[in-house]
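for the record, two folds in this file. i put them one after another cuz i was lazy. first one right below, seq on top, C-alpha cells after. the second one comes after a little note so u can tell where it starts
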Amino acid sequence: MRNFAALGALAAVVDTDADRATRAATEAGAPSVSLAAALADPALDAVAIATPAATHADIALQALQAGKHVFVEKPLALALEDAAKVRSAAIDADRILMVGHLLRYHPAFEALQCLADSGELGSVQYLSSTRLNFGRFRREENTLWSFAPHDISMILAIVGEEPDHVTAVASTHLNERVADVTTTHMTFAGGQGAHAHVSWLHPVKEQRLAVVGDRGMAIFDDGEPWESKLRIYRHRVEWRHGEPLAARAAAEPVLLEPDEPLRAECAHFLDCIERGVRPRTDADEGMRVLSVLRRAQAIIDATTSLPAPRRQAPPAVPSGVHPTVTIDPDVTLGPGVKVWHYSHLLSGSRIGAGSSLGQNVMVGPNVVIGDGCRIQNNVSVYEGVMLEDEVFCGPSMVFTNVRTPRAGWDRRSEFEPTLVRRGASIGANATVLCGVTLGEYCLVAAGAVVTCDVPAHALMAGVPARRVGWVSHAGEPLDENLVCPRTGDGYRMEGDRLVLRA
C-alpha cells in the first residue's frame, strides 16, 4: 500500500478487518472498499494481492476474470493445478500476471545475477542459501512454504533451469504438525548443486546467498550495510603434489545503488502494465518455484519423521474453565470467567471479567466480549462481532459475518462488523445479520431475525424483526405509561429515543 501510494498508483484499499481498512485508507489517502466493489469498478485496472497463501489462487482468478492485471504475493498457489488455472486465466484475459518473489528485485541480487550471467565467476558449481530468524511463527504453513520461496526463486534464476532432483529434511520443535526448520537440496542437469536452509527458530536474523564458481565466489548478505551487501571472493583452488590447497583472496565489495526491493518490485509491475511486457517473475516463474516446493514437501511427507517436541507441562486449566475447553494462544480471560464443556476460544480473543460461556460456544478469532456477559449453549461469536458489558445471548442464537453466503464463493472480504451494546439481550434461535448495531438494553425476541440497527431499549420481534414495544433496564416490557413493572422506574421519549426519567 505504501509503495503503490508513493508511486501514484493506489486507487483503493481492501481489507477484511474493517478497522484496519479504515486506518489504512486514511493513511494512504485512498478509499476503503470491498473486494467485490473493487473488482466491479472499471476504473481500477490492477490489483495487488497480499493475503494468506491459501487464498491467492481464488482471489487472483476472480481478479483476472474481472479483467484486472494481477500482482500476487508468493506463492502463486498451493497446488500446481491451481497455479495453472491462474496462468491460463491471465492468458485468456490478456492480462499481466506477476508473482511477488521480492528478492529478485533486490539491487544486490540483480548485480549478483549479472556476475553469474557474464561469466565473471566462471562456471557456477554450487549455491548455498540461508534464511534464518526468530519468528514469525506460523501455525498453518511451515518454514519451507513461508521462507524458502525467495531462496528457491533466486537459485533457479542463477542456474537458469529447474532441478533434476529435489530432496528435503525437516524438524519441528513448537508444533508437531508444522516444521520449524527445513533444508532443501537441489541438483541440476549441468552438475550444479544447491541447498536452501530456513528456520524461524534462530537467535539472529540471517539472509545470505553464496554462489560458488570455478573462477570466483560471491556472497549476497542482506544483513550487511549497502557498501558490503555484495562481495566477490576471487579464491581459487591450487593443486600441489596432487593435493588441493585453498588460495584465498581479499573480499571485493560491489558498488550498489541503494533501493527498496519492494518499491522496485511494485514499479516493475506498473511498468509491465504500461509497456505490455512479461514480468521478470511471471506465472511460469511462479510455477517453477511451486514445483520445487511441492517436490520438497512430498519428500518431507514421505521420508521425514517429525518427532513430537519436548515441551514443558501444559499450563493449568484456569479456574472455572472445563477441561474439555480448547483455548488457543493469545486468548485473554478476565477474572471470574466461566467456560463450560467443549467450547473453543480462538486466538486474539478477550473475554471480560465475570462472563459465562455455555457448552459448545465458539469465540473468535480476535473477538472482544465485555464484562459480565452471558452466552448460552451452541453460540458462535465470529470475528467482527463485539459484545459490550452485560450482553445476554440465548441458546443457539446466530451471528452472521456475511449477508449472502455461498459455499462456492469466497466472501471473506465482505465480512461486516456487528456491535452489541451494553445490556442488550438476544433470545434463543434469533439471528442477527452482520453490519448492524444493537442498542443498549434492547431485547430481541426468540426466533427473530434482525436485519437493521436496533434502537436502545427497543423490543424486537418477528421475521424480519420489527419494534413492537420498549423494555426497561431490567428487561421488562413497559406499559402505556412507560413504567417498569419490576422496578417502578419511569421512562419518557426524547424524539425517537427512550430515556429514564430523572
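(here's the note) second protein begins now
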Amino acid sequence: ELYDLCDLLGFFVIDEAFDEWENPKNKWWRGHNVYPPKHEGYARDYPAWHAADLTAMVRAHGSHPSVIAWSIGNEIDYPNDPYASPLFGEMTGNNDANKPVAERVYNPDRPDARRLTTLANELIDVVRAADSTRPVTLAAAFPELSSRTGLLERLDLIGYNYKEHLYADDHVRFPDTPFVGSETGHSRAAWRQVIDQEFVAGQFLWTGIDYFGETVGWPSHGSQAGLLTTAGFPKERWHQRRSWWADRPVLRLAIRPVLGELDHHEHLPFSRTWQAGVPVQVACFTNADEVSVRHGSTSVAMAWDEDLGCWIGTTTAGADPLLAGARAGGATLRDEIFPAGEAAAITAQEWLVPERWRHVAGDAVGDDSVHQVECRLLDVHGQPSRGELEVDVAVSGGDLLGIDSGDLSDTTPCRATRRRTFDGRLLVHVRGRRPTVTLRAFGLAPITVECTGPLAAGGQSRPHLTREAEPSVPPDVDARTGARPGCV
C-alpha cells in the first residue's frame, strides 16, 4: 500500500535493503553514543540470507514506477563501527568527538574497511541480475574514506549522508556518476549544494515527518526533525522550504523569540503566536524578490538572510497585527499574523481526498473506511488561539482509532478518548461507514462532525459544524487555518 501511494502521489523512492551487512553496528539504545551499545540487527542473518532477501525486494517492488533506485545499504561504512582503516589518522570527521578515544583511532583488530568493497560488489551483482534498468546506490556515512577504498567505484548513483561539502571535490574523481543527498539536514546551505551543482540529483531530508524514537529524552518519545508533525500538520519550516522550491507564489510570516546568538540556529522553531511586549524575530518566507512588513502602523526593516533562506527583521510584539505584502510572478501576495486570544470555539472538519486523485482512490465508503477529522481551537476573532485545552472525543456509528496532536512529549496513549491540543490542533482517526464525531472542551460549545466519506463533495475539504455549535468566524477567514484572503 505504501508503494502504491508513492506511485499515486509521484513520490521518488530509493528502496533500501540493509542497515548492516556481515558485522553488527552499534545501536544506541540509551542515547546517541551512550555506552554500552547493543547489537540487534541483520548481521547474524546476512551470510545466509542477503542474496535471497535482496533479490526478493527487487522482484517485489520492481513494478512500481515510484522506485527510482535500489540501495544496498545505509551507513554501513560508519567509521570504527566496526570496520577500521589505518587511513583514519589522515581523515577529518572520522568519528563523533564525544566517543572514547579508543573508538576514534585505528584498531587493527577490527575488520578491515576494504572488506566492504568486496561485499558491495557482490550486492551490486545481485541487484543487477534481478533488475538491470534502475541504478544501484548506497548511503555513505564516511565518504572521506569510502571514496578511497573502492566502495563507491561500481555504484550508478553515489549517496552521501550529511557530507555535502565533499560533492565538488569528489565529483572530480567520479565525473561520470551522479550524486544524491541520501540523507541531509534542513539547512539552506545543504539545499544550495543541490540547486547549484548539476551533477547532484537531489536530497532526501532527515526527516520529512516527525517519528517515534531517537529522542532527546523522556517524556519526549520521538524526533522533531520533520517538516510535518506526526499528526501531519505542517510546521513553519515546511513553509520556509516551500518558498525555496515552489513554482507558485509563496508568502508566509512567522515569528520566534529574540535569543541573541541562537537566532540563526536552524532548529530554533518559528511559530505564528506571540505574547505582547516580548521582542520577536520576524521571518518572511517568500519567493518574491522584495517584501514589506508592517507591525500596525510601523514598518519593520527586513533584510535577506542567506543562512536561513528568508527575510528577517525584529520588532516588539504588541496588540497590532503583523502584515506582509509582496509581488511574485505577477501576483499580489498578502499575509497577516494576529495576536492570539484565548480559545473561544472548536472548529473541525473531515479531511477529504482532493479531486485530482478521485479516479484512483475509488468511491466506495464501507464499514472499514477510515476518516480523519481535523480539530482546531479558535479565538473570538476566528484566529488560531493561544493556550492548549484537553478535548474529549466521542464517536457514534463507528470506532475511535486514535487521537494525535503532534506533541511528542505527550505520553497520553493514542487510543485514549481525550487528548490535549498542541498548537491548538488535534487529528482524530475513526473507522466506520458514516460515523459521527463529537468534540468537547471545557468552557466551549461542543461540535459534531458527520463523516460522509473521504471522497464526498467532489473531494473538496469543508467544515462540518452543527448549527448550535457554529463558532463566530468572520466570513473572510478560513475556519481551518485561520488564514485570510491572499494568504498562501
